Amino acid sequence: MSTTPSSKLPPFDPADPLGIDDLLGAEDVAIRDTVRDWAADRVLPHIAEWYENGELPGIRELARELGSLGALGMSLSGYGCAGAGAVQYGLTCLELEAADSGIRSLVSVQGSLAMYAIHRYGSEEQRQRWLPGMAAGEIIGCFALTEPDHGSDPSGMRTYARRDGEDWVLTGRKMWITNGSVAGVAVVWAQTDEDGAGSGIRGFLVPAGTPGFSAPEIKHKWSLRASVTSELVLDEVRLPADAVLPGVTGLRGPLSCLGHARYGIVWGAMGAARTAFETALDYARTREQFGRPIGGFQLTQAKLADMAVELHKGILLAHHLGRRMDAGTLRPEQVSFGKLNNVREAIAICRSARTVLGANGISLEYPVMRHATNLESVLTYEGTVEMHQLVLGKALTGIDAFR
Ligand SMILES: Cc1cc2nc3c(=O)[nH]c(=O)nc-3n(C[C@H](O)[C@H](O)[C@H](O)COP(=O)(O)OP(=O)(O)OC[C@H]3O[C@@H](n4cnc5c(N)ncnc54)[C@H](O)[C@@H]3O)c2cc1C
């Protein structure tokens, strides 16, 4: 085996130690840099204040700007969507989450959940009615699956849609719904009697303002504070026959949408981790104790080396899954693999970075603790750690341990 003389090797780049950027094309880099610049300009100067206040002011303006960037429904085609590749969508999620998980959540729910559901399972009329405005960020969407008593196991959901003549009448409650209070349209999943009780879950498009529908915001969150999270109350909400998504019946409808959103999280989590790592690296180089930078101590270097290894392994994994998605070969178990690993490692990186910063690590003056607490939500939503372990456990053993 011969090795290249070190004089001919490209220099080591602490920001990209494995040279992963070599995998990107010019258009990928252009999209990534555009989103990074937007986040630096529009999110980073304000995010600590928004987080402290538990608000996302100007969310409608931010949504319109994200629409202009082509970030909403980015990998969908037609109806004003950008038709971008999976890696480009992933890079966008990474750059947005490097700023804050709340901004990435806004984009994931809009594009990968609400728009994806309408694009994949909606009628042509429904697509024409909703998607162009959602792609432009003029209309915000939400995706309502979780209920107060049904989270990891949505099959037992109690929100129910009954037929009344041609109409549908929805009653029930949804919980923890991102974008709920600001949404112009809610994609609501409900039980119906079609296909027999229990197996007839259908998706409904509920415009905001429909009588009987309300979306009070959930307060007192210690995570994803710069994100709108809501309860949805459906009290005899009457909808026309064409409010139902005609393309799917059963849980595979919402679960397929979740698969798409989870893929974005595989990338996004590494954005939060990257910010934590960069903050720790910068701090370690300049903070002095015992007469020298703390980055000169072996124990600190061990932390930084371990963080860098997990960060760039995670980004490489995200790339690999993105290429499989573009090739049409990405399996749901592989998305579970990526979500499980990358969110778990991102939290570990944040916690390690927090220790490098000492007391400053707990301050909102630095982004590390904000990212760490955000990732607690990311660890739970779109399938908890345990759900993804069970998906992989089932795939590995052939034995279903869910029940
Ligand atoms: C900030 C935020 C935003 C969200 N946004 C949305 C949204 O937009 N739309 C939406 O529909 N939902 C949303 N969710 C809800 C999220 O998807 C659920 O919280 C998640 O699915 C888990 O459900 P749960 O909280 O009811 O926990 P539970 O399902 O009650 O689980 C509690 C614990 O038990 C474990 N557990 C459950 N079953 C098993 C089992 N068989 N084996 C081992 N362990 C098990 C879980 O892994 C978890 O650790 C959001 C949540 C948060 C925090």
Summarize the helices and strands and which ones pair or pack.
Layout lengths: L25 H17 L4 H7 L5 H10 L17 H14 L1 H21 L2 H12 L5 E4 L15 E5 L2 E12 L6 E6 L11 E6 L5 E2 L14 E11 L12 H35 L1 E2 L2 E2 L4 H30 L4 H25 L11 H13 L4 H13 L6
Parallel strand pairs: 1-4
Antiparallel strand pairs: 2-3, 3-7, 4-5, 6-7, 8-9
The structure holds flavin-adenine dinucleotide.
The site of flavin-adenine dinucleotide has 19 residues, from β1, β3, α10 and α11.
Q: How would you explain this protein's 3D organization?
A:
The protein has three domains: 17-135, Acyl-CoA dehydrogenase/oxidase, N-terminal domain (Butyryl-Coa Dehydrogenase, subunit A, domain 1); 141-250, Butyryl-CoA Dehydrogenase, subunit A, domain 2, CATH 2.40.110; 253-397, Butyryl-CoA Dehydrogenase, subunit A, domain 3 (Up-down Bundle), CATH 1.20.140.10. Helix 4 (86-99) crosses helix 7, helix 5 runs antiparallel to helix 6 (124-135) and helix 9 (332-356) packs antiparallel against helix 10. The strands form three sheets. The protein has a four-stranded antiparallel sheet with strand order 2-3-7-6, with helices on one face. Strands 1-4-5 form a three-stranded mixed sheet, with helices on one face. It has helices spanning 26-42, 47-53, 59-68, 86-99, 101-121, 124-135, 252-286, 298-327, 332-356, 368-380, 385-397, and strands at residues 141-144, 160-164, 167-178, 185-190, 202-207, 213-214, 229-239, 288-289, 292-293. Helix content is 49%, strand content 12%. With 403 residues, it is of the alpha+beta class. The longest helix is centred in the last third of the chain and has 35 residues, at 252-286. The structure holds flavin-adenine dinucleotide. Flavin-adenine dinucleotide binds at residues 109, 143-146, 151-152, 176-178, 224, 229, 377, 380-381, 384, 386-387, 402.
